[in-house]
């Protein structure tokens, strides 16, 4: 039975009905992402931190019962073999280090495909979305990944939709999240949706989390756009950063944050004092400045990376933005070090 079939009233599950989650842990999985997700379920499932599996249940499932080593070295043992995927309301794939050549075995991939065929929702946590994408299970779905992994996801899966401006995403039969503390946020959403708000509140209070963040919340970091408080401006500038070659049209950028071009122009002028086009140019120049200092790449290569057709055009724009040419900036940075 799917969770939506046993919801009652305000979302409190009927007696005896439980939210059932199966966890698939990859080799070198991220322990914190797994622990925060499963502990949110544990604390929501019972009252007063008794750890009873009253309103939720979970299993770590695998092709063997061998210990699985996390990226920090702590090992976790599967508690169940692969069973009928329909025994679970969600199957959560917890990823980890991207340097691992085969994060899961072929039996696991087969099991995930069986779950997809039976329409059991799949969730990729941390880099778990890479595993789902590699298995061909993220087609026609958005993937939410950490900004640290955005570029690699695009390189590996150029035909798939990916974003790194949000903490997590639920897209029909798929979920994905950036990992870390956002694992608790995603688990809290499931708890609220399929158990109750009281259960969610109980879990978060014990975890010392003030409140759950939503899929609309922005991933925390300290880039150029952090000086601006408007979430739409931040989301737009994150996207600019992801398409630093200048290939994202302003109209499409506006649509991605739910605005018309005119609305986006007005908000940018109000919040940043510059147009989206000027802000986009600034993002590209900031990236170029960073590359100049951190590498010995020739100017033409940097120019092409940030969307210019030739080095002279890039040099003129750089000087107009920072008051010195790229060569002057690189020389000054070299002397400073």
TrEMBL record:
Claim: Iron-sulfur is one of the keywords in the record: no
Pfam families the record matches: DJ-1_PfpI, HTH_18
SMART domains in the record: HTH_ARAC (SM00342)
Residue ranges of every copy of the HTH araC/xylS-type domain listed in the record: 234-332
Cross-referenced PROSITE patterns: HTH_ARAC_FAMILY_1, HTH_ARAC_FAMILY_2
Entry keyword set: DNA-binding, Transcription, Transcription regulation
Any one Gene Ontology molecular-function term assigned to this protein's record: DNA-binding transcription factor activity
The keyword Glycoprotein belongs to this UniProt entry's keyword annotation: no
Protein name as annotated: AraC family transcriptional regulator
């Amino acid at each position: 039975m799917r969770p939506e079939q046993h919801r009652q009233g305000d979302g409190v599950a009927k007696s005896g009905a439980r939210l059932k989650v199966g966890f698939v842990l990859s080799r070198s999985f991220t322990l914190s992402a797994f622990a925060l997700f499963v502990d949110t379920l544990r604390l929501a499932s019972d009252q007063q931190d008794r750890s009873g599996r009253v309103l939720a249940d979970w299993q770590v499932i695998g092709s063997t019962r061998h210990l699985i080593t996390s990226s920090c070295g702590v090992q976790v043992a599967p508690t169940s073999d692969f069973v009928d995927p329909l025994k679970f309301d969600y199957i959560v794939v917890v990823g980890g280090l991207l340097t691992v050549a085969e994060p899961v075995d072929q039996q696991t991939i087969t099991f995930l495909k069986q779950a997809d065929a039976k329409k059991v929702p799949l969730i990729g946590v941390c880099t778990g979305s890479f595993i789902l994408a590699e298995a061909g299970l993220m087609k026609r779905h958005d993937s939410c990944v950490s900004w640290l992994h955005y570029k690699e996801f695009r390189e590996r899966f150029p035909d798939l939709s990916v974003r790194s401006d949000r903490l997590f995403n639920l897209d029909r039969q798929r979920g994905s999240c950036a990992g870390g503390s956002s694992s608790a946020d995603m688990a809290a959403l499931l708890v609220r949706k399929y158990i109750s708000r009281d259960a969610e509140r109980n879990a978060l209070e014990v975890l010392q989390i003030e409140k759950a963040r939503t899929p609309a919340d922005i991933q925390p970091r300290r880039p150029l756009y952090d000086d601006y408080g408007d979430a739409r401006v931040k989301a737009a500038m994150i996207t600019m950063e992801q398409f630093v070659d200048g290939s994202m049209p302003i109209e499409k950028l506006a649509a991605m944050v739910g605005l018309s071009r005119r609305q986006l122009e007005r908000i940018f002028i109000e919040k940043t004092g510059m147009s989206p086009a000027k802000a986009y140019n600034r993002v590209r120049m900031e990236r170029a400045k960073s590359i100049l200092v951190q590498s010995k790449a020739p100017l033409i290569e940097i120019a092409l990376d940030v969307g210019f057709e030739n080095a002279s055009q890039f040099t003129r724009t750089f000087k107009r933005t920072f008051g010195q040419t790229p060569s002057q900036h690189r020389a000054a940075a070299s002397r400073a070090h």
